[in-house]
Amino acid sequence: PTVTFIDVAGVEEAKEELKEVVEFLREPQKFISLGARIPKGVLLVGPPGTGKTLLAKAVSGEAGVPFFSISGSEFVEMFVGVGASRVRDLFDQAKRHSPCIVFVDEIDAVGRQRGAGLGGSHDEREQTLNQMLVEMDGFDTDTNIIIMAATNRPDILDPALLRPGRFDRRVTLDRPDVRGREAILNVHVKGKPLAPEINLEVIARSTPGFVGADLENLVNEAAILAARRNKKVITQSEFEEAIERVIAGPERKSRLINKDEKRIIAYHEAGHAVVMNVVPESDPVQKVSIIPRGMAGGYTLSLPTEDRMLMPKKKLIAEMVGLMGGRAAEEVVFDDITSGASNDIERVTKLARAMVTRLGMSELMGPMVYGQKEELIFLGREISEQRDYSEAVAEQIDQEVRKLVAESYTKAREILNQYRSELEAVATKLLEVETLSRIEFEKIFPPPEPKRTGIPMLMSGNGNH
After folding, report:
1. Catalytic site residue 182?
2. Which of 135, 269, 400, 442 is an active site residue?
3. Average pLDDT by consecutive 10-residue portion of the chain (465 residues)?
4. What fold does the segment set 12-172 form as a domain?
5. Which residues of the chain are in CATH 3.40.50.300 domains?
6. Burial class (CB in 10 A: 0-12, 13-18, 19+), 262
7. Which pTM does this prediction carry?
8. CATH number listed for the domain at residues 259-377+384-444
């Protein structure tokens, strides 16, 4: 079946840009009469899974013209000169079938910046690229061939490839926002029997950061789960389980955990949840569980109430305090600490270091970036960190990072000492039922400061608040 724009959802701006391309192919005369030249190339840029290849297919489906697709890695082979001759063949074929679309997927395989990289193979790649540059420029303006290319690494492409006249248009595909995710889900649930109570907006809200490919996978996982449970329709509970599978990995219920460890894990997760619930800038807790998933012994899921572009300093500090809640609970309750918090500590340290050296959020160090990321062009653009500061400054940075981490830990401990009874209540309940949804958790411990209610919660309960 031909893919058309109806099948592509969640990237409205990119679709608008590409509709022009389709018009060029359908009625070129309209543009030529005004002296406008057809854009030669369109570069689709975006993270993996955002639908670059799908969009290219949709353009050819809409325009109803032949579509030649090749991936960047297919040009370069073990024989010298194969790449360049393949480029010539491809364009000869395209000229015979014009108007048409030539799509080069993963163009960074051939379009890397020349002069970078050691070893014999890069000459071959450069020849291929040179041939491509010549072909893209050597067209007569009336051939009506449009080249589309996709990449998720625009930073390493050769500047000669990106100049106007070769790739005139750059269409950026970003991760979809809530509305985009809902639209994408709508496309993927077509033809699947859904239970009437399913609310796609709720699912879209509980999947921040997912791209199109993740959402497709999510719907598929939910359908597989429903089949495994012998249901006739896919219900909300399958979607919840699928979201958790995608985020944290499948549950490992069979793994035996001894009683003492289970208690420690319960208090650890309860610690995270209680601290996140108390700190006003923290995201609302959606779920606390001590069933092991993936590599983790338990997990606390907090989801933002809306998609954010900017992270305020208060929010970052709140995140650090929340992450420290687990280790703090172990110390407050058992007067001993375990290795269970290693991942939390690693994340806190990274956050703190980023705040000091990258985001300029430390008063002592001021709004400066420390440590330039340097690209070593002869090592194939490997990234290395260059220390552009003195030992004394390095010492100050370490002090600031340590101070931030220590402060967030102290804050987490203070909160847990203050709300000790709630911590006990949550942990006891966790040991009994293993998983608490947001509604169940807030019954035991309503947030002291009202949080903006985010996602109308899916998890058990009536979900209509």
Report:
1. no
2. 269
3. 82 86 83 82 87 85 84 73 81 83 82 60 70 71 77 81 80 86 90 88 83 89 92 89 80 75 90 91 86 77 75 90 92 89 90 89 86 58 66 89 93 92 91 86 83 44 32
4. Rossmann fold (3.40.50)
5. 12-172
6. middle
7. 0.72
8. 1.20.58.760
